[in-house]
Write a structure and sequence with these properties.
There is one protein chain. With 455 residues, this protein is an alpha/beta fold. The chain has two domains: 170 residues, Aspartate Aminotransferase, domain 1, CATH 3.90.1150; 261 residues, Aspartate Aminotransferase, domain 2. Helices cover 35% and strands 15% of the residues. The chain has 14 helices and 15 strands. The strands form three sheets. The protein has a seven-stranded mixed β-sheet with strand order 4-10-9-8-7-5-6, sandwiched between helices. Strands 1-2-3-13 form a four-stranded mixed β-sheet. A hairpin with a 2-residue loop joins β11 and β12. α4 runs antiparallel to α11 and α12 runs parallel beside α14. The longest helix is centred in the C-terminal third of the chain and has 20 residues. Bound molecules: pyridoxal-5'-phosphate.
Length: 455
């Protein structure tokens, strides 16, 4: 079967015709995966799906069935799967020069680094970039520079935050389900996030007077030596369940951290590159300027690419020894990054993300009026979360129902994510090329699934 319209009658129209699939069956792929891949690599869905092709906001399985990708696997696809302009640029670069390390001069990396620097607020001084291959690498490098620059040891991160799956970044992560019992958290202290729906201090905004942010001073006073190397946080927590603090949160926290000698690191792995719709960077929504910005995911539209951008003085800390990353900064990755940036600007993704995201959020908020299981709708731009609860008063997390909704959406050709410490937050973060019709499909599908939930 290759006519996707047969199985997906209500999906918005799509002109792209997938190439007929001739590869191994899903069962064969599954069996090989079980035998040869590390079982720690988990699969979505009880009946996993096999994805063999992608175009803009859509994905196709081996049977030619089309899915609306509303999680962008995972929050990586910024301008669309296999965006034609990026494909063309990559093909040209691959044929010319695939790999050279940073030990030689090459024009693409410097052109890209300059364009990236141009996207930061002019007065920030954020112009010196070290490219990496992933978000975890970016965060480890950023924290290392903070240690070297400040001479301090302790790091503050936020409960509910996710910063990566390597030893040190797992230590910075503050959700038990993502942590192994390892010593990577040495020197890491976790402060309280601005999670108003589940206030960690049991208070209400605004009468709380931002207790969550001010409590960080107590952590510094009682849990550290009084001096810290850095504070690292996502402007909106992604895997933690789209937790968006009030606008006063980061200005208060940044002041406290800087008074204790620390640098402020903004983990823009999910929130960067226009994702929040209102601003190109997540931190800009809070009127703060970080000392270091870490990036990955959307920066490469699917290519393994990350970056750490900081001020010259901080970047210079790495010159005291030899430091090197074999693949980082190679010309194909740089071409992808550069082209993604160009497409984001040329095709007005920031405005589009804001417009479609606002519309979709309104539709999700409207659903809250019809489904008591929806406790909260959060986020901005195309970084949206729907928190499901069993009871609006007790806010008991509806973890099992969230899993059912996740599966049922897939059965209706809609791929979404799931997150939060309790796994009860539906995460909607599609490629930013989605249209109003796609937004309607997402909202209508959720409406239908929630209506039938306990049939
Ligand atoms: C905010 C944030 N930081 C860092 C990472 C780690 O990135 P990677 O998986 O590329 O190492 C992630 C991954 O989901 C993330 O969401």
């Amino acid at each position: 079967m290759s006519d996707s319209s047969l199985s997906t009658p209500n999906l918005p129209r799509c002109e792209h015709t997938p190439v007929p699939y001739t590869g191994p069956s899903k069962a064969e792929v599954f069996a090989k995966r079980q035998q040869y891949l590390n079982p720690g690599l988990f699969l979505f869905y009880k009946e996993p799906i096999q994805i063999v092709e992608g175009h803009m906001q859509y994905l196709w399985d081996e049977r030619g069935r089309r899915y609306l990708d509303a999680i962008g696997g995972i929050v990586v696809i910024s301008v669309g799967h296999c965006h034609p302009k990026i494909v063309e640029a990559v093909q040209q670069q691959v044929a010319k020069l695939t790999h050279t390390t940073t030990i030689y001069l090459n024009p693409v990396i410097v052109e890209y680094a300059q364009r990236l620097a141009d996207h930061f607020p002019a007065e920030a001084g954020l112009e010196s970039t070290y490219f990496t291959n992933s978000g975890s690498e970016s965060n480890e490098l950023a924290v290392m520079m903070a240690h070297l620059y400040t001479g301090n040891f302790e790091i503050i991160t936020l409960r509910n935050g996710y910063h990566g799956g390597l030893s040190a970044t797992m230590g910075m992560t503050a959700m038990s389900n993502w942590k192994f019992p390892l010593p990577g958290a040495n020197g890491v202290k976790h402060a309280t996030p601005g999670y108003c729906y589940r206030c960690p201090h049991g208070l209400e905004y605004p009468s709380c007077r931002m207790r969550c942010a001010r409590a960080l001073a107590e952590i510094i006073d009682y849990d550290t030596c009084g001096k810290v190397a850095a504070f690292i946080a996502e402007p909106i927590q992604g895997i933690g369940g789209v937790v968006e603090p009030p606008e006063e949160y980061f200005p208060i926290v940044y002041d406290i951290v800087r008074a204790a000698g620390g640098l402020c690191i903004s983990d823009e792995v999910q929130t960067g590159f226009a994702r929040t719709g209102t601003k190109f960077w997540g931190f800009e929504n809070y009127n703060v300027t970080p000392d270091i910005v870490t990036m990955a995911k959307g920066i490469g539209n699917g290519w393994p690419l990350g970056a750490v951008t900081t001020r010259k003085k901080i970047a210079e800390t790495l010159t005291q020894k030899l430091h090197f990353n074999t693949f980082a900064g190679q010309p194909v990755a740089m071409t992808v990054g550069l082209k993604t940036l160009e497409v984001l600007d040329e095709e007005n993704y920031l405005e589009r993300c804001q417009e479609t995201g606002t519309y979709l959020k309104e539709r999700l908020e409207d659903l809250k009026g019809h489904h008591s299981i929806i406790g909260d709708v959060r986020g901005r731009g195309l970084m949206l979360g729907v928190e499901l609860v069993r009871n609006r008063d007790s806010k008991e997390p509806a973890t099992e129902d969230a899993a059912k909704v996740h599966e049922a959406c897939k059965d209706r050709m809609l791929l979404i994510g799931k997150g939060g410490v309790f796994g009860n937050v539906l995460r909607i973060k599609p490629p930013m090329c989605v249209t109003r019709a796609d937004a309607d499909y997402i909202a209508d599908t959720l409406d239908e699934v929630l209506t039938k939930l306990n049939d």
